[in-house]
Amino acid sequence: MPHLVSIDNVDMRYGGAAGTLAVSGLTMKVGKGEFAAVVGPSGCGKSTLMKLVTGLHIPQSGVVIVADKHVTKPVSIVGMAFQNPTMLPWRTTLDNILLPLEIVERHRHRLRANKREYVEKAEHLLETVGLKGFGSKFPWQLSGGMQQRANLCRALIHEPELLMLDEPFGALDAFTREELWCVIRDLHAAQGVTIILVTHDLREATFLADRIFVMSARPGKVLKEHTVPFARPRDLEVMYEKGFNDMVHELHGEIASARVVA
Amino acid sequence: MSVVTKNTAPSTTPGKPLAQRINWVKLAPWLYTVGLFVLWELLVIVLQTPPTILPAPSRVFQAIAQYWSPIWKNSLQTLYTTTVGFAIAVVAGLAIGLFIGWSKAIYAGLYPLMIGFNAIPKVALVPILVIWFGIGAVPAILTAFLISFFPIVVNVATGLATIEPETEDVLRALGAKKLDIMLKVGIPRSMPYFFGSLKIAITLAFVGSVVSETVASNYGLGNMMSSAQSQFNVPLVFAGLLMLAVEGIAMYALMAWIEMRMTGWAHRSSMSH
Questions:
Q1: ipTM confidence score
Q2: Angle at A122 between CA A116 and CA A125, to 5 degrees
Q3: Which of the residues A214, A218, B18, B92 could staple to A224 if both were Cys, CB 3.0 to 4.6 A apart?
Q4: Is residue B52 part of a domain?
Q5: Does the distance separating the beta carbons of B188 and A84 come in below 8 Å?
Q6: B94 and B210, same structural domain?
Q7: DSSP string computed for B149-171
Q8: What does the pLDDT average to over A195-223?
């Protein structure tokens, strides 16, 4: 499988030579179309990983390659979604979703002339995440779960090859979270997009991912890599199987010991 | 909402007492204003203060009627200097606010200067303005501008400086330039702060123009009041104050209305779903 993301022996230090070392010797490869999850104790540099892959930070040493290109500036082939949906309150949900198209070089010059086509695409995405007919609402008229669905649409509208998710479901209640797990599972299956999910939720990681990377405490590096064996498409019921629980248990043990070492 | 509809609908229930059909909240500002004048009148009657110390409101209204022509002319003059100064403050404040909010270095460098400048009492600048521009409308306009642009600058800069880092990350990862982020997020985001600051700025602009007119002009309410004071025409001084209050309330209401129209999304609780 060709690699879409390849991180090789990367060091990233904040605040000059004497600053904190956020990640050290980080090596990680994610194949095209793969769903990778990154778990670890808090402060293990998961957010740094996000910024390294998207080109918001450039590492002091080591190499980050995304889509066969050495990352030296922001890569516009990614979509990002954070725990905070950060919808702009003065735009309707639809206009929020169209926002990346006003930025990305490839689309911004076509947007005005092809508005109808893009709006149709956005509406189709809204339908996929179960928000059909909500495009004209303002974000603050939507519930937290609905805003997060719209946030996913915004992350996907410009057809990114890579979707980076930083704890996108952290602030939601358990049932909404499970619903959105299924949404993201189906999006991944339907669109063939590569996804890197950073999360604290081990069940979430196990349910969604093909591979799980366990990171150490700061300075972060990959301690262990698991391949998730469950066949796709996965049903929520898989979470009640013994193998699933064993895997979550094992991950939990690894993170607990990584915390102790720190 | 239902209360309002009940009140505006033609009353089909004549049995209902009058007190329940009146919207007391809407009426309250008028009632309190009338109440203040009544209290003032009573106080003057009870204490028997001479009109050269504290004229009764009836005496003030009488002065307004008596001197209506100069009052009207000077009110318009003050309104003119104030709004021109305020308009310059809006344009300059918006521009400087955007400039300051643009980068952290500019913000850090200019902020102390702005605070120092704002700490200078603007009345102390009027003599300098007179040296430069002579007496009249120009110093009044400039004083109104100088006193009212600071809150606009601070509010616009604050709006820009408080963009959520996640929003910025999402856009920067897509290849957004600083200008894109400012146009798409920063400026719309700072608009509620901007329109909110207009309400503060317009009242300050009146302070500036009247102060300048008092010391260095032959026109305007400030000048009218200071010459009335030198003739011990205290009712006319109070008439001038009353006109200022009326102009201030009117302009404030206008700014509040513009704020509501332009940035209704920021007052979401008042918008129904």
A1: 0.78
A2: 145
A3: A214
A4: no
A5: no
A6: yes
A7: HHHHHHHHHHHHHT--HHHHHHH
A8: 89
